Amino acid sequence: MEKSEELKQIVKEKYSQIALQSKEQNETSCCGSGCCTTDVTNIMSDDYTKLQGYNPDADLGLGCGLPTEFAKIKKGDTVLDLGSGAGNDCFIARAMTGEAGKVIGVDMTEAMIEKARNNAEKLGFNNVEFRLGEIENLPIGGSRVDVVVSNCVLNLVPDKRQAFKEIFRVMKAGGHFSISDVVIEGELPKNIKEASEMYAGCVAGALQKEEYLSIIKDVRFENITIQKEKVITIPDDILQAYLSEEELKTYKNSNLGIYSITVYAEKAKECCGTDCCK
User: Fold this and answer.
1) Which of 3, 107, 119, 133 makes a 20 to 30 Å CA pair with 13?
2) How far apart are CA 73 and CA 94, in angstroms?
3) Average pLDDT rounded to a whole number, residues 6-29
């Protein structure tokens, strides 16, 4: 697999292309719609349309869960969405936190930030803002946010431990997160692990489930809970682009599991020492 900066460039290029398309265009270019393709970015998405605050212009059919549905957002909260894309989760969060609250979206793709800002302007929201930046180095001061959400993005971050450290840093004491992400149990085939399209599609960069949860614990989050879990099935049309017929049989007979999990965790309400809330 490529080095960290090369991986980030792969993700930027892929999601810049997606930003210029509508949800319908994205869906008709992926296996989730039933056609033959090697694009895996849309096969995991859930239906947002019944959630308050939903805006179709901000829904690109991406993601692997509904983190805002589980995020326990209250009126007046400051909410941070990591990998905010066209603003879908931000606008759902805004409906929950209300005009007294604030929602900040961070994305490293310029085209996504532009699309999200245009959507916010059309909606007339003055308490939703979008900042260009990377999750491993968030453009936000320490102890500023009550709730962090993210939807199928942290698996795209090369240094996931640093990402969770940054989440801890910007979160207020007593704050919490609800993050939907992709994890695995078992071993991915070598050809899939090394495919840039499968990395950008949220599969090749996924951690082992136990390692993912262990990082969250090591960063000192508490009350770690899996709020939702679902199996991700990659269609044969995608797998055949990377695996031979024999390898595909082996893959299907293996104990490999690919899952979307929505994880909740909290930052302690009170410091236990001089540096525990940093």
Assistant:
1) 119
2) 9
3) 76
